Amino acid sequence: MTAFHAHQGDERLRDLPPSAIEKMHTAARAIRDGALPVAQRLLKDVLASHRRHPEAMRLMATLHAQAGRHDEAFKTFELALERHPDDAWLHNDLGNAMAAAGRGAEAFDHWREAARLAPGWVMPWYNLGRNQQLQGDTAAAIDSLRRACESDERWLPAHILLGDALLHAGDFDAAAARYRHALSIEPSCGDAWRGLSNIKTVPLTDADAEAMAAQLARPGIADEDRIAMRYALGKLEEDRGNHDAAFEQLAQANRALNNRRPWRRDAFERQVEANIEATATLPEPADTGLGTEVIFIVGMPRSGSTLFEQILAAHPNIEGASELPDLEAVIEQESACRGKAFPDWIADAGNDDWQRLGADYLARTARWRERHPRFTDKMPENWRFVGVLRAMLPGATIIDARRDPLETAWSCFRQQFYRLPHFASDFDDVGRYLRTCEHAMDRFRDRDPGRIHLHRYEALLDDPEAGIRRLLADCGLTFDEACLRFHEASRSVRTASAAQVRQPLRRDTARAAAYGARLDPLRRALGI
């Protein structure tokens, strides 16, 4: 909690009697801990005696939003704002609730109003910057996050997110300075070490190794910080040629991450097989051109997909949108409405359903077509939905990005992922995941060879111009010289490869061979 936040919180309760203040504090803790019925009862007691108290109504609205009762949350916020129209906290939290409900444009209006009413408060600036970055408006995000950092120089999340935005914009020196500032506040900040390690073109130093070792020796360091530091140390030791030490750090990081939430590979494989079977027969689309604006780049993480996107984004007709959550969001929303998990409802969906879902995806992603007629969506995990795209977005192009399996799997193991459970923390899991992914994509491509195109990272390295020409042709694009100079393209790259794709092509990206027999279990898992 920032100093402004704590002070204003006390001020907002000043007119309540001690008994009501105690109920408010207890209700806030109950909301934090998910005990929503307890919080609701306490807040009703307060509001019965103190009608439309802004803080009690803010907490009640937040409770409704957390429970998924969005209409009740909006109504409660609006009632509170009728009496307290200049309350920055109400505007800020209404923005949060609207964002959670998919009403992003309105959310921005309320965050901006909160920032206008309380320009020295970090939260509305942070919310603005975070969501501007999620929308790909990195320049605006940097401006908002700078204001957040100026509002509270010691609030770590704002400094970390500003560092991330600067990294995505290609300003590596400024990003590193921001992460270093965060470490001056909290030397064990795992997110700061993660950020510095992700500037892969600038190695960490011997002093960094000593600093992380000192932090790991301290008691009381949070598990997530320890895990992030071990990933960073693994990268650092590899850069120094100490492959035994690198392997040990990465192995410890992955064991700790996997222990938090193990991945269920058997259930995953059953779901993918059901997906392949369920998508074998789909209704013929009424509008075969629906989705021609979209180029999906799918496959394994760390397979070169960011490089393929960077090449395409250098074309004058293409907007590089990076990793978008929208396709999965559309599928998950339909699953929720039907009360069945994907792919169990595929057989129940008719032509009108698929056209509706495709139109929903295009509406969600419309902002990516404001400057250019077509855009890329390079969320790797979208391969899981490729089977339904020939009914849902039959005009879309799909690029199946692949890299040497061992290099891909090892690169996944070396990279920290934040979505848990995750397949990349165990050699058997990553091997099974990669083989299942490639098996599914092979089946989908056999059914739809005219729209699903296999592109290999190594082939691009061997003959860049030929590979780029074939990539453009498969996307229905005319050749453009700018695509050969993809590393000069000015755009936000919101992935772990942000630094690498701003460099000319390199042929020395292979890492696995240096680890020799240590990776034999991974080779066996991959069937090598």
Q: What's the helix and strand layout?
A:
Blueprint: H1 3-12, H2 18-33, H3 36-49, H4 54-66, H5 70-83, H6 88-100, H7 104-117, H8 122-134, H9 138-151, H10 156-168, H11 172-185, H12 190-198, H13 206-216, H14 223-239, H15 243-260, H16 265-278, E1 294-299, H17 305-313, E2 318-320, H18 326-338, H19 351-364, E3 374-377, H20 386-392, E4 397-402, H21 405-414, H22 427-447, E5 452-456, H23 457-462, H24 464-474, H25 520-526
Parallel strand pairs: 1-3, 1-4, 2-3, 4-5
Kindly describe this structure.
- With 528 residues, the protein is mostly helical.
- Among the domains are: 1-118, Serine Threonine Protein Phosphatase 5, Tetratricopeptide repeat (Alpha Horseshoe); 265-495, Rossmann fold, CATH 3.40.50.300.
- 60% of the residues lie in helices and 5% in strands.
- The protein has helices at residues 3-12, 18-33, 36-49, 54-66, 70-83, 88-100, 104-117, 122-134, 138-151, 156-168, 172-185, 190-198, 206-216, 223-239, 243-260, 265-278, 305-313, 326-338, 351-364, 386-392, 405-414, 427-447, 457-462, 464-474, 520-526; strands at residues 294-299, 318-320, 374-377, 397-402, 452-456.
- A five-stranded parallel sheet has the order 2-3-1-4-5, with helices on both faces.
- The longest helix is centred in the C-terminal third of the chain and has 21 residues, at 427-447.
- It is globular, with a radius of gyration of 25 Å.
Quick structural summary:
The chain has 528 residues and is mostly helical. Helices cover 60% and strands 5% of the residues.
